[in-house]
Amino acid sequence: MKYVKKWPWMALALSVTALTGCFDGTEDANEQTSTSSATQGDRIKLAMLLTPRTGLSPLSDDAFKFSRWSVGETLVFLDKAGNLQPSLATEWEQLTPNDWRFTLRDGVMFHDGTQLTPNAVANALRTAANASPKPRILDGVSWTVKTDGDNAVIVSSTEPDPLLAQRLTSPQLTILAPSAYAENGTIDPENTGTGPFRLVKLNGSSTATIDRFDGYWGEKAQAPGIDVSFVPDGIARASALRSGEADIVEAIPVSQAPLLDPDMIREVPMPRTNTLYLNTQNGVMTNPGMRAAVRDAINRKQLVDNVYESRADIGEGLLGPALPWAAKLRQPVADPVMPAEPNGVTITLGTYTDRTELPEVAVYLAQQLTDAGFTVKQDVREYSQIESDALAGKFDAFILSRATMLDLGDPVAYMSSDFTCNGSYNLAQLCDPAIDQALQTASALPAGEARQKAIMKAENLILATDAAIPMLHERVIQGQSKRVRDAIADPRERLIISTRTHLASPEMME
Fold it and tell me: Which of 169, 200, 290, 377 is deepest in the core (most CB within 10 A)?
């Protein structure tokens, strides 16, 4: 039987960077009217939280910088409501439960001057599918890609994948020019994207230079460029906004928000959970009773009130209030494990400094665990320096600020990555066949209530292990100067700068 699902191309050209509206894409860049002129002073100064960890490889979490800068694009993207919209592909059809056909947009140019072709798209997607390790969005997924005529590709999954098209919205599947991919396996993103801005130069882990790309297929960017600084220290980021050294700042620490003009703060709920991961394979936390003792020791309200100054929500589960359906479908864990007596046993608690609140969370949590009878040693470093140890299971407990909807617009990808036997980001070293089966069941269902119920069943099984203890759900606190116009405060943290983002002229500020 043939299954066909088709979404026709819309009358207006849409871009992943133009969620707030569309201009006429045929307008000449030199004739655009804007409150900003193409002067050096109108370049947007952006201070970002995380430094690049892989030289901006699109196969890593660095890829989300491509979408935040509007440098790279995917075949399709998710709008604010989580619905699929066209980007580099204008139509998509589900031919069979395993096969999807994507029709490519005409007239798209890569930043190196070459044209978007089916071969270029197939090359980018095959590179991701064959990578080791795979991008997180492809955890547990096996697929092949082939060209289909002069303007289409067919993506085929080994097993039916009802969310294959949604999977292709992940920035980890950004389409770069063939010139980006070297024979030795390295990927160079400079001047190889398709977005309205082009990455001119990445300067290690300190800065990046981005210019407007006037050959863009859609709406031309209003700002002439973006000057990016990577500033892991949250206090320094907030200071940069106050002093005018930055126009837009990611992740303002809650402790700094009261020190800023309220007009310079944008706060929105986000699907991000501050979670304590406990090591189920090595050390003290292999004992379920010890994990239960940690669970019962945590005072979530103290963390929310004292560390986050009430700019967060108490964690009731892995999925927070940004997904309203989760609370409605959540069931209490049946027969939770009884806590054991710690009796002074020593545990190592790790976290990282890149998110300013986490070291303070660690201090409060260490005291709570000490009061419960544990002896706690803390290890706090920059994320780039601690990630490999965390993934290797070198901590008894690890505090992580985790985005639960970053990849797919659906929490199955996050849960599979973090809590299945073969998950690529399994900090808890958890391996439970029942959880794997529950997530496999959820992944096979189409979007809708049945899938949501299956997801919450998997959440219940995960919470029952006490391998991951949700503490609180965070909010986006983004800072921007009063000159900034049309920046995006995105709960999913995929977007910041769009084609419409620009700086108002000083005359407009008077």
Answer: 169
